[in-house]
Amino acid sequence: MAAAKPKIAIVGAGMGGLAAAATLRQVGIDVTVYEQARQFGRIGAGIQMLPNSSRVLRGIGVEDRLRRTAFEPYSHLNRVWDTGEIKRELPMPESLFGAPFLCMHRADLHDALLSVLPPEIIQLDKKLVGLDQAGDGVTLSFADGTTARADAVIGADGVHSLVRDLIVGPDAPLHKGRIAYRAVFDASLMNGGEIRPSRTKWWGPDRHIVIYYTAQDRSQLYFVTSVPEPADWVTRESWSAKGDVHELRAAYEGFHPEVRMVLEACPDCHKWAILEREPLPHWSDGRVVLLGDACHPMTPYMAQGAATSIEDAAVLARCLAAVGNDDIEGAFRRYEASRKPRTSRIQAISSANTWMSGGNEDTSWLYGYDAWTAPLAEAGDLALAG
Q: What's the pTM value of the predicted model, to 2 decimals?
């Protein structure tokens, strides 16, 4: 007789949480997603889905929907901040890694993931305040006084994860004196100007800016930066804080005319602190496990934060499908042992901000990864998750 499938609660309805809901439902697992927000908003930010994550989106069933509106860059292009000299360019046709490179608005990806989930499994306005593991399940307590019971819990609640605090203990974010500006705006504000049809990163001596279109018709443009900032400002990781567009332009004085054109056209921007966290000693405790930014938060410098969360979802579903409800804790340890070496490597490179800054390093280990078929850790490897 086949093992019974568990009922799993997912805390957090971001990219990782929704991807986990989709992949778990594909293997027959009942899920409910609990999200603290009262409603979903269209936060003004772009997102890159490189082949390693778009391959998972294909398996979830949202690739075609995204391709109807997303921009497909010609290449991953790296240029010198002032002269425009090419440091490295990697053309990225779909044939290179077997999946597309897509740039889009974050809300379009979020909507696509929501589209494959029944609305009734998403519970909004559910702010988690406690977890209680007892017997063969977990009780979740919410700020509104309600509770829920599940066979297991996945904490996909981001860099400020309460689930992480509850199972690992609170950890303080590390600030290294850097902030980011970002904006999505109408490309027509450039008055006929255009940027190259690539995802371009402009490398300065102590700062950079990444620019790309977020719509197939090139009607929307996005940029995100990394700039030194006195540490006294770097106190939070809020995506909603407004930035001063004049300060932003001043920070990129002397950059190439293409960068200046984009910044002059930008009507307003947001500003947030780039904070990091130390790698966690373990990702799970009993029947509670972490996913995505909750367990391996990353700087945005490799565009792999949401991507690795989406990879996590596919691998976690594979591990749980193999055990049903018989050994959830073992499945969680296998998932961690399967994922931690890769995510730790990406975390370290992203923190150093050296990816594709020059040279000819191999990119296939990153972009060619297939979370649906990558080898899973064997029993002897589970010490990695200890």
A: 0.94
